[in-house]
Amino acid sequence: MAVIGLGKMGILHSGIINSFPDARIKAICEKESFLVKAAKSFLPDSVAFYKDHLEMLANEELDAVLVTTPIQTHVPIILDVARTNRDLSVFVEKPLASTLGQAEIACDAARSLRGVHMVGYQKRFSPVFRKAKEFITKGLLGDLFFFRAYSFSSDVLRRGSSWRFRKGTGGVLLDLAPHLLDILLWFFGEPSTIESFGRRIYSNEVDDYVHAAMSFDSGMKGTIETCWCLRNFRLPEISIETYGKKGMLTVSDDFVKLSMDGGIGGEQSQTFYKQSFETSVSFLLADPEYTIEDETFLAAVRKRMRPELDFFEAAKVNAIIDRINENAPRT
Description:
Strand order of the largest sheet: 8-9-10-7-11-12-13-14
Shape: globular
Number of helices: 10
Low-confidence stretches: none
Number of domains: 2
CATH superfamily of the largest domain: Dihydrodipicolinate Reductase, domain 2
Number of strands: 14
Distance between the termini: 46 Å
CATH architecture of the largest domain: 2-Layer Sandwich
Order of helices and strands: EHEHEHEHEHEHEHHEEEEEEEHH
Radius of gyration: 21 Å
CATH class of the largest domain: Alpha Beta
Strand content: 15-25%
Mean pLDDT: 92
């Protein structure tokens, strides 16, 4: 396998992949010399380094490529991979693209690939979100009528000039919200209508805060909020509360709580904390879901089996982001 882009996620996936006995990182493409120097200090000497991904694709015999570059570069790289070697499989860190139009171009390119393709929405491999999905699928809450959800962080607390502030490369919807939107699509499907508004608190070109209200053909309604300007969220946090006629479900990165209507006797509830799930993995470099995600991709590559989180599924997140952006007034 090869990695294109050696930022935080490139380093993480490299470490995990090299821990598996039947997979290895053979080549890395990275332009920044200080990142290359750091990588050489912990990766095997057999790893080849390139500054140009086209040169790497031409010179190396590969089964798969992991793309962990900035969002706006995903689609051009995917197109290069599809033109160079149709047998390659491709893993791309979330989101798939910066717009739905770009995501559709990636999907068109994927149709020509004989390998598999997948996008890194690792929250679907988290035991707490999987348990919440199980409760919803089983219909334990009865008819669903409302949800409220948020994704918050403390990433932007003052004005600046980094990539986060630039149009097309940042914005809270592209950077922070995709995981939340993917989980909501997984839980409830695609909304029929969306109304939204955004606010630019420290940024001039992108939204720092977005609120959206969604309606579904089932009659379900819900609201989401995402903001990266909130103090005391050192780590990004997701929370989803779902209400049904038989009870309520709350899920976050740390726990899932099911509260059922106990009739006259009162509420009955059960809480499952992340630590209580069996999440032992072959190699733990970050949260276990990253290892499970990479294992899932490798299994799909070997079997030429379409993964659940392929480009077509991931493009739905870009569709939601575009719909939120279309008519959202800014203040």
